[in-house]
Amino acid sequence: MSVRKRTWTNGKGEEKTAWVVDYVDTKGKRRLKTFKLKKDADQFAATASVEVREGTHVADRETVTVQKAGQLWIASGEAAGLERSTINQRRQHLEHHIEPFIGEALLSKLTVPTVRDFEDKLRAEDRSPVMIRKVLTSLGSILSDAAERGLATRNPVRDMRSRRKGRDARAEKRQQRRLEVGVDIPTPEEIKALLASLSGHWRPLLVTAVFTGMRSSELRGLRWSDVDLDGSRISVNQRADEFGQIGAPKSHAGKRTIPVPPHVINALKEHKLKLGRAPTLVFANPDGEPRSHTNIINKGLIPAMKNAGIVTEDGKAKYTGLHALRHFYASWCINRREMGGLGLDPKEVQDRMGHGSITMTYDTYGHLFPRGDDGKELADAANALLSNAT
Predict the structure, then answer these.
(1) Any alpha helices (H) in 80-111, and if so which ranges?
(2) Coil, strand or helix: which one is 18?
(3) d(CA 284, CA 156)
(4) What confidence category does residue 285 fall into, taking pLDDT thresholds of 50, 70 and 90?
(5) Is 76 helix (H, G, I), strand (E, B) or coil?
(6) What distance in Å separates the CA atoms of residue 118 and residue 124, rounded to the nearest whole number?
(7) 296: DSSP letter
(8) What is the CATH class of 66-175?
(9) 247 burial type by CB count under 10 A (0-12 exposed, 13-18 middle, 19+ buried)
């Protein structure tokens, strides 16, 4: 590999100079790459020399643009059978956030400074910090997919994040706000009021949400075959995505069995009796298909909150997402001693919530913990919570 100076005269009679890197790539092809400055040529030569020796070098002519790599990344997801919502998210990140800024850039020219500049542009265009993190994750995934195809050798997103890891973790820890009872988590009194106000076909769904902590997608995909009315258990084996498609839980940890108190079993028995010939899904719409998440929130949860008087100063529902009930379930599991039972330990809470790691449980609910579980306390705690709710 050599770096040499090239001098020539253009059509206007002006003398021009450039620096040429002359090398043989991993396929045995001779390559010439021209630079305006010697320092850039030397830097490329040093990097390319290592990559050629390791068999990882990709010449500019052998690579593709970020846009093309993104399209291949989406195709990879479709071939792997990813959920439609995940594929749609990939398309949105690529089309609305990545292509407008670096879509035409060659993968071989992406560096940590390039990615940092891309991040700054997203911030300047008023993308939220959360969205910026998600888009960078997608860009890193695009580059990983391209590397597997032999179209890229470096992943500057991964390199940038590895450099930032310690600093960002410390900053995130400082900025992270703890979930607060009465702000993010309904209080026991609010849950009592909510449950006392429930009626109709929303009652069994919301009672189940309160005392299982199941995600919206898991409730919408729950089958009667997964409900053990005699054993007082509900098994989470599938979920319904935002398009109503049934699939496995998103993670292995999401597949779990949750013990439930008599109040849930009684509500489900009444629900099944009213249905007569029950459909496959416990909380199906009139056509037997999964209810939409929006329908549950707008027609079920928000009106129930208002009926129970759980509202803000301007009369709006105080909690407008099922995740608030999921947070309540976690806090109830942890602090049932105060409600007539024993609190669960962190590992048991992780299992009930379907968290992929104990770290997630600690990060979200660690500040709420006292202690352990036995058999009878589940019903005792529920009875204590609901003593004034019916």
Answers:
(1) 84-92, 99-102
(2) strand
(3) 46
(4) very high
(5) helix
(6) 10
(7) I
(8) mainly alpha
(9) middle
User: What single string gives the DSSP state of each residue in 177-218?
Assistant: PPP-BTTTB--HHHHHHHHHH--TTHHHHHHHHHHH---HHH
Of 19-28, 163-172, 203-212, the range with the highest mean pLDDT is 203-212
Rounded Cα gap, residues 7 and 325, in angstroms:
72
Judging by beta carbons within 10 Å of its beta carbon (0-12, 13-18, 19+), is residue 236 exposed, middle or buried? buried
Rg (CA), the chain: 28
Q: How do residues 55-83 score in pLDDT, each as one tens digit?
A: 656 666 667 899 999 999 999 999 888 88
- List, in sequence order, every residue forming a beta bridge with 57; answer none if it has no partner: none
Question: What's 12's DSSP letter?
Answer: T
Amino acid occupying residue 352 = R
pLDDT at residue 174, rounded to an integer: 44
Coil, strand or helix: which one is 78?
A: helix
Residues 256 and 236: beta-carbon distance below 8 Å? yes
State the virtual CA torsion across 172, 175, 181, 186 in degrees, nearest 10.
-70
| Domain edges within the chain | 2-57, 66-175, 188-386
Closest CA to 111 of 30, 22, 47: 47
- Say whether 68 sits in a helix, a strand or coil: helix
**What is the C-alpha to C-alpha distance for residues 66 and 105, in angstroms, rounded to an integer?**
6
- Token couple for 26: 């991993």
Q: What is the mean pLDDT of residues 294-303?
A: 95
Closest to 213 measured CA to CA, from 303, 332, 376: 332
Quote the CA–CA distance of 285 and 300 in Å, as a whole number: 13
Domain covering 188-386 in this structure, CATH number: 1.10.443.10
Q: Model pTM greater than 0.70? A: no
Centre a 10 Å sphere on the Cβ of residue 330 and count the other Cβ atoms it contains: 23
Tokens of 11: 């059509």
* CB neighbours of residue 252 within 10 Å: 10
